[in-house]
Amino acid sequence: MCQKPIQVLVVDDHQIIIDGLKSILQDEETVQFAGGANTMQEALDFIEQHPVDVVVMDISMPGHSGIEITLIIKEKYPDVKILALTMHDEIDIIADMIDAGASGYLLKKANMNEVLDAIQTVARGQRYLGNKVQDIMMDEFSQRRSTRQQLEYESQLLTPREKEILQLMLREFTNEKIAEKLFISIRTVETHRRNIFTKTNTKNVVSLIKYAMKHGLTKSETA
Questions:
Q1: Residue 18 sits in which domain range?
Q2: Looking at the structure, do residues 55 and 121 belong to the same domain, yes or no?
Q3: What is the pLDDT of residue 155?
Q4: Are residue 128 and residue 163 in the same domain, yes or no?
Q5: For the whole prediction, is pTM greater than 0.70?
Q6: What percent of the chain has pLDDT over 70?
Q7: DSSP three-state, residue 184
Q8: How many CA atoms lie within 13 A of 217 on its CB side?
């Protein structure tokens, strides 16, 4: 018994992309070009009138972005799978498209074997991220991890006493008030203040406040 070909709708505002995919898919046995659409309304009208398994979706569209169209399609036709095929390689757009309901994401520089593999994969209900997209996401993960580790390291530069004094400085305590509250000499407070500014590479209280907010040091533990 022959398996029914995967019905594919291509949504792109460039007709040349639609025609190109149509030309490539016409010789495939497992994947069939069902139609093309240049706008959101054309896409919705087509899906309403024709069986569609996978929508190959561009993101830059006139009137409505591919992200918006994906949200609407997934709400009206939850069984239809969305595969993004776009020039956009920004991590935020990738994330927004996946959050909207896309099962896969490919860049238009992908070769057609990868496009076919992606269509078949999402049609089976699985996720597919193109090789370049995986690289982008791994780079972002690595960068965020590095940034988080750097912030954690910087937050540990200050001693517990320095953090205590920092929090009092942020509450606009004078040296005298800090010394009185912590039962230490004013000279000791001044030394700690110098060390705090040096370690945080700040020169005034305003920049120190920014540093403290960035590193989660604004919450006072001093009663």
A1: 6-139
A2: yes
A3: 57
A4: no
A5: no
A6: 89
A7: coil
A8: 29
